[in-house]
Amino acid sequence: MRRSIQFILTVSFSLLSVAIIALFGLLLYDKFSQTEEQSAILSTQQIVEQVSYNLEDYVGSITEVFRVIDQTVANAQGRPGETVASELNAILRTREDIVSLALFTESGELIESNPRQTVRDSITLSEQSWFRSAVDTPNHLSFSLPHIQNIYHGSYRWVVSMSKGITIKRGGVTQNAVLLVDVNFKQIDELSQRVSLGQKGYVYIIDDSAGNIVYHPQQQLIYIGLKYENVEQALKYAYGSYMDDSTGEDRLITIKTVNNIGWKVVGVSYMDEVMTSKQEVGDYTLRILALVLLLVLIISAFMSARISRPIKQLEKAMKSVERGEFGTPVQVKGALEVERLSQRYNMMMGTIKGLMNQIVREQEAKRKYELEVLQAQINPHFLYNTLNSVVRMVGMSKNEEIVRTITSLSKLFRISLSKGQAIITVQEEMEHARNYLTIQEIRFKNKFRFTVEADDDVPHDRTLKLILQPIIENAIVHGIERMVDEGEIEVRAIAAGDRVRFTIRDNGLGIPPAKLAALNAGREIAPEPSPAGGAQPVSSGSGVGVHNVRERIRLYYGEEYGLTYESELEEGTTVTIEIPRNTDGADRALREEEAE
């Protein structure tokens, strides 16, 4: 199926644009996806690091408090107990997160506590992890896991115990002791709870030494086994990120170690949330690309229409040429090549128009020459027959008939010549037919009688000359000459609407059907032998005469005009000639001949 240039340009531009935009979209989506994933990883790392820094800062602050308490206790030798207690109370009042502090001997005896509390009898301090760490590693500050403070009566608070083995003087005797400071775990819990990694992500804290969970937002589920964390894998990293699917979901694990306490902050981000963000980015990118594609399609359609419009104008001009309209030049504006094409087109049309005018002139000249040849064929033929008759009359000494014949012949030739004009009036053509019949009547010794009549409204109409004579001659030679009885020939000219109608009727022998069909079909018939032997040319269908008349009428007036025959054997023949009344063709031919 053939496509228009606008369609081809639009489709080509659109396909090229779709390919480029699709490639650009894929690259853009890949870049955005990588950026989104890297942003998620970086954001998780920053949050985890911030939690770690906050814990380090907090642990550093309570460590400093512990150091102050340690110095206060170490400097208490020789000072009143009330003074030392007052100093410790001042420290506790400045730090609401410190629940209590106490000093124990290595055997677990309570030396001093603030606030003052009573140790439970059922508690064995040597079984407490914080106590063992202080005894086993003197002068090293130890942090316990979060636990319930259960060594005092009536106290059940969630604390982290800070303990350290120190040396004191008691009763003048130096001995080892354990300093205990319980810090409210709520502060650490609040630092971790404020952290959010997406909708489902969270942060938890583990002990670096054994992998025990210090803090988890779902710690109760951990204890009862409904929640699982791959702590073993996390212990392998001091800092960094990795992917974990041990829980059945893809998760991004980010780890940062809290240096001064030995804990690890573990951030958990769910990749489906990252993928959701990537999907949102993809959807947004797709909408942008669809909008761009729509704009490109509109621009492509506009540009293709703009490019093809001059070509369509040329096509329209060519269609007008097909209809025969050569006069209007094409003024096409557009690209340089299109303008040059329109200029070449106008030049070509000018050349074609000139050639057509030349052909018209040549055809007119050819038509004129053909008519002159046809007329030349008729005039010698008639002259031959007439002079032959005059010769016979001279031999018979018929002077009066010779005068009538020569007089009619002179009038006949005067009208035939008509100063070289091919168009004469109907009156002149009817006069020409009368003179011709007069000559033939003398020639055939009054073998027929004739009448020549014309309506009053047609004598001044114009007609081709010498269109009646060949038909009349044909009627005489083929219709009446071989009759026994006297013949009749009637020639009439009447107005029939917008036409002039000539009728030539005879009562002769008629025309055989086969020949009649050939005459009406316009086929030229071979001449018949004359009675004396030899080939005598005859007119009106059996020789050049009728054929010449038909051709002349067709050339001047068109194919719809010409001759028709009606005939019955032994009844006679009627020939009808129709031409237009005062046609432009006849007037134009007359003007051309008058101008010449």
UniProtKB/TrEMBL annotation:
Record-listed E.C. numbers: 2.7.13.3
A Pfam family per the record: HAMP
GO molecular function, one term: ATP binding
Transmembrane residue ranges: 7-29
Membrane topology per record: Multi-pass membrane protein
Low complexity composition bias: residue spans: 531-541
Keywords: ATP-binding, Cell membrane, Kinase, Membrane, Nucleotide-binding, Phosphoprotein, Transferase, Transmembrane, Transmembrane helix, Two-component regulatory system
Key word Hydrolase present: no
SMART domains the record matches: HAMP (SM00304), HATPase_c (SM00387)
SUPFAM superfamilies per record: ATPase domain of HSP90 chaperone/DNA topoisomerase II/histidine kinase, HAMP domain-like
Main subcellular localisation: membrane
Region (Disordered): 525-544
PROSITE patterns: HAMP, HIS_KIN
Compartmental location: Cell membrane
GO CC terms, sorted: plasma membrane
Family matches, as InterPro entries: Bact_2-comp_sensor_kinase, dCache_1, HAMP_dom, HATPase_C_sf, HATPase_dom, His_kinase_dom, Sig_transdc_His_kin-like_C, Sig_transdc_His_kin_internal
Catalysed reaction equations from the record: ATP + protein L-histidine = ADP + protein N-phospho-L-histidine
Residues covered by the Histidine kinase domain: 464-583
Signal peptide residues on this chain, from the entry's feature table: none
Residues covered by the HAMP domain: 305-357
Protein name per the record: histidine kinase
Organism, as annotated: Paenibacillus methanolicus
